[in-house]
Specification:
about 450 residues, alpha+beta, five-stranded mixed barrel, 14 helices, 5 strands, flat
């Protein structure tokens, strides 16, 4: 009985294994064919839906054909009307051109010799407009620019316009012969505007306190110059403001052109910077040499105070040195040895000053060579058409040479003074030694 129970179980296992083998036997081609067949069935099922939608869309388009035909006819009518209008405007334009030419010819005949007058009027009005834009008097005559601009473009001027131009030139002449103080808007170098009392010197310059200003009509204010001239010029402004009598005042006769050029003038630091690294090294050498020279002068004065004193410790030392010597020759040898040793202390450092004085122009020559090399490199790359490309190298060459000479000259003077002073002290020391030997 137990053996019969296992028979159904074995049979079921055999069926499951057989089914798995059947599933595994389906090929890839068969699977692809099944997928294609499914897709075809879906397309057939949806075909009717797409056909209905296309029919509705076509019918909707056909229903609106009449509406579009109407729009097309309206557009054709509008185009025809515009063509007719265009032809009418062209005919009218040609007619107006002929009429305008006739009127201009009649105008020239009526103007006659006054045409030259009107031409000169336009010319002078245009010149005054251009001058008024950067003039120091633009703030006092705010309406002048508009009036003159209109006069400069009008072909035929009336009497009022001629009088306006006449009065404008009279105002210009009058403003050029007086000094006037008034309140105006001032713009500082940071762009902030404030109100202040300015003084106008003719048509040349306008100042605020002791600072020169630049007229800027676009801002309707006067702008402080970023860099003011030397104190010798600004002091004249301050002196004139405080004086009740006639005084000299520094003005720019070119009406601001020289002051604008002054803005491009480099300062001393900027000039030294043009020498680049070599320039700063020369300055450093000069400062070291100057400090050492001052130190050496102080030391020589200390030595001089010791040697020149009557009750000098130098005399006592020399007397102590020769006290144990028996012969005169031995005493002289001891004194000479003392003078040589003491002279070393006095003359120490003089050659260093001489070294600094000699190395400064050599560094300047080095900077000159480097600057000329850069100049020739610029010529090789850019040619000689643009001088600005060569200016940097030439500037370095000249600045370093100048700095080397400036540093060397005073250092050479210090060296001469120190050498003479040291020689004088040594000579005094020798005279004292001779005196001490003569007493023995």
């Amino acid at each position: 009985m137990n053996k019969l129970k296992f028979i159904p179980i074995i049979f079921l296992s055999f069926l499951l294994v057989a089914q798995e083998e059947v599933v595994e036997e389906i090929s890839i081609d068969e699977q692809r064919n099944n997928a294609i067949n499914e897709l075809i069935n879906v397309i057939k099922a949806n075909k009717g839906i797409y056909i209905d939608q296309d029919k509705k869309r076509v019918q909707k388009f056909l229903d609106r054909v009449e509406e579009r035909n109407k729009l097309l006819n309206d557009a054709k009518v509008l185009l025809s009307n515009e063509k007719k209008r265009n032809a009418q405007l062209e005919n009218k334009f040609e007619s107006n051109e002929k009429t305008l030419a006739d009127l201009e010819e009649k105008l020239q005949i009526k103007i006659g010799v006054l045409g030259e007058l009107f031409g000169v009027t336009r010319q002078y009005a245009g010149e005054l407009v251009a001058a008024n834009e950067n003039s120091v008097v633009f703030y006092e005559y705010p309406e002048r620019q508009k009036i003159l601009s209109e006069i400069a473009v009008v072909k035929v001027h009336n009497l009022l316009q001629l009088e306006d131009l006449w009065l404008a030139y009279f105002d210009e002449i009058g403003a050029g012969s007086n000094i006037k103080t008034f309140n105006a808007q001032i713009t500082d170098t940071n762009g902030e505007t404030f109100s202040g009392e300015v003084t106008r010197y003719g048509l040349f310059n306008i100042v605020y306190k002791d600072n020169y200003l630049k007229p800027v009509s676009a801002l309707n204010s006067f702008q402080l110059l970023p860099r003011q001239p030397e104190g010798a010029y600004t002091k004249t402004l301050k002196k004139h403001a405080k004086s009740d009598e006639y005084t000299n005042v520094a003005v720019d006769p070119t009406r601001g052109f020289l002051l604008s050029l002054y803005l491009d003038k480099p300062s001393w630091f900027e000039r030294i910077s043009q020498g680049r690294l070599i320039g700063f090294i020369i300055i450093l050498v000069g400062l070291i040499g100057l400090a050492f020279s001052i130190f050496k002068i102080i030391k020589l004065r200390e030595h001089a105070a010791v040697i020149d004193s009557e009750s000098s410790a130098i005399n006592a030392r020399m007397e102590t040195i020769i006290a144990d010597a028996q012969s005169k020759e031995a005493k002289e040898n001891l004194i000479d040895e003392f003078i040589i040793n003491y002279s070393k202390d006095i003359e120490w450092g003089n050659n260093w000053v001489k070294f600094f004085a000699a190395v400064a122009p050599l560094l300047g020559l080095l900077g000159t060579v480097i600057g000329m090399i850069e100049t020739f490199q610029a010529i090789t790359l850019f040619g000689t058409g643009d001088p600005k490309q060569m200016a940097g190298g030439i500037s370095q060459a000249l600045i370093t040479t100048m700095l080397g000479l400036i540093v060397a000259a005073p250092l050479l003077g210090f060296y001469t003074y120190l050498s003479e002073k040291a020689s004088t002290l040594v000579q005094i020391l020798e005279e004292k030694a001779s005196y001490i030997l003569s007493k023995v």
